[in-house]
Each structure stands twice: as C-alpha cells, then as structure tokens.
Design a protein that fits this description.
Oligomer: single chain
CATH superfamily: Ammonium transporter AmtB like domains
Low-confidence stretches: none
Order of helices and strands: HHHHHHHHHH
Radius of gyration: 19 Å
Helix content: 55-70%
CATH architecture: Orthogonal Bundle
Mean pLDDT: 93
CATH class: Mainly Alpha
Distance between the termini: 27 Å
Number of domains: 1
Number of helices: 10
C-alpha cells in the first residue's frame, strides 16, 4: 500500500465521519423547526434512521446497489458485501468504501423524517425507514452509481443531488401525502396557519452543522485526496451562500422583513442543488 492510497483512505474516512455527523444537523433542524412537545419523537426517529439504515444496508442494500452490472439492480453480495468484486474495495479497502456508502444511505432515510414530523406513528415510521435503506435507496442508487441504466445513459450525479437528496425528497413527499398535514396547520375554513419554530437557535445550529458537514459530503465523493478538493469545496460554499442570499431577498420582499427559517432553508436548498455538479 503506497502513500497515495493511504491518503485516499484517510480522506475518505474523514469525509464519512463528517457525513455521519450530518445526522446531528438534521436532528437539530427538525427539532428546532417543530413544536417542543415533539422533540423526543423526532430525535428517536433520526436515531433509528441511522441504526436501521446501517444494518439494512449492510445485509441487503449494499448488494442491491453495487452487486454486479445488471441495469436494474445488483444481484450478488447479499449478507456478505465484502465478497463483491469492486475496484473501490481494492483502492480503499472494503470497510472504508462500505462505511462511506452507509452514511450516504442513512442521509437519504433521514431526509424523510422532517416531512412526516409530528403526525407519524413510530412503529409505522420504522417500517418505512427500513424499506428505504433496504430496497428503495439501493435500487435507485444502483441506477446512478452502481452501473445501472441511468449510468449507461451518461447520467451525471457527482455527490448525490438525485441519488440521495432527490430520492429522499420524493419519499418524503409520499410520506407527507400519506399522513396528511401537521395537526393545526389549517384553520376550519381551509386557510393555512403558520406553525412557528419553537427554537430558531437550535434550527440555525443544525443548518450550520449541515453546511460544515456538506464539505465532507461533496469533497468526499472523490474518494481520493486529489487537487480537485479545493475547487469542489469552493463551489459548494458559493452555491450555499448565493442560495441563502436569494432566500433572504425573496422573503424580505414578500413579507417586508427577512424570514429566518426560510433563509436557513435557502442555505440547505443551495447545498442540495450543487451536490450533483460540484465537480
């Protein structure tokens, strides 16, 4: 093992640890932007997203995503993902590449939690979360990153705007449509009612954690310590900053003053949007 390979391994591990810490960011954002009485439920759901995601992805999900070149789904490596013949295993070792992909899977599952906050039965949510990490994310991920049909068509998604965030977003939409609006969201006449965040400071902390960890998310997708890391980091930061400013201006124009929660969400929108093409 030469020095460059060791550097690649160390960098990919650091990036994976940063992406793992995004779970804390999501927990803070969702807790801060919802009502205080639901905090424990939200934190428990986020915790179980990662726990179930880790186990389900190791046993079945990784094989569905990377187990062979079938255009639809992987077919080898179930219950023993280290048996798959992957170039990334040779470059990084199986453990490093698997933990990096595991934290990405858990991120997709966690995105769903916020959209279904305050009105989801815990046991039902656990089943949905497990299905995401076990089947849904791995199959769609295979299409893009596992040599599937989208990859064959030349589809480019460097770090996961579609593979991770869009998939998580669509699943969140399905979940939200299924469980309906938050309790108290609409008045008797059907007009929407604003539900203020119970702790803006907590939500802001979560956004800053996510912004920081996103450098690991995007830069880490090189899975190598290369000279492109600085460019990827700068592109990521510029996109987030520009999106934040646009959100601030729009809310200022619409409401007569800047809206903190919408501006913070603008930061996240910029980060999500740049993830596919940050390279």
């Amino acid at each position: 093992m030469d020095v460059q390979q060791l550097l690649n391994i160390v960098w990919t591990c650091i990036a994976a640890f940063l992406v793992f810490f995004m779970q804390a960011g999501f927990a803070m954002v969702e807790t801060g932007f919802t009502r205080a009485k639901n905090s424990s439920n939200i934190i428990m759901k986020n915790l179980m997203d990662f726990v179930l995601g880790t186990l389900c992805f190791f046993v079945i999900g990784f094989a569905l995503m990377f187990g062979g070149s079938n255009p639809i789904v992987g077919t080898t490596g179930f219950f023993d993902p280290t048996s798959i013949d992957l170039q990334q295993f040779k470059d990084l070792t199986p453990g490093v590449f698997m933990i990096f992909q595991t934290v990405f899977c858990a991120t997709a599952a966690t995105i769903v939690s916020g959209a279904m906050a305050e009105r989801t039965k815990f046991s039902s949510y656990l089943i949905y979360s497990a299905l995401i990490s076990l089947i849904i994310y791995p199959i769609t991920g295979h299409w893009i990153w596992g040599g599937g049909w989208l990859a064959e068509l030349g589809f480019h998604d460097f770090a996961g705007s579609t593979a991770v965030h869009s998939v998580g977003g669509w699943l969140a939409l399905v979940g939200a449509a299924t469980v309906g609006p938050r309790i108290g969201k609409y008045k008797a006449d059907g007009t929407p009612r604003a539900i203020p965040a119970h702790n803006i400071a907590l939500g802001a902390l979560g956004v800053f954690i996510l912004w920081f960890c996103w450098f690991g998310f995007n830069c880490g997708s090189t899975t190598a310590a290369t000279d492109t890391l600085g460019s990827i980091a700068m592109t990521t930061n510029l996109a987030a900053a520009a999106s934040t400013l646009v959100a601030l201006v729009i809310t200022w124009m619409r409401y007569g003053k800047p809206d903190v929660s919408m501006t913070l969400n603008g930061s996240l929108a910029g980060l999500v949007g740049i993830t596919a093409g940050c390279d």
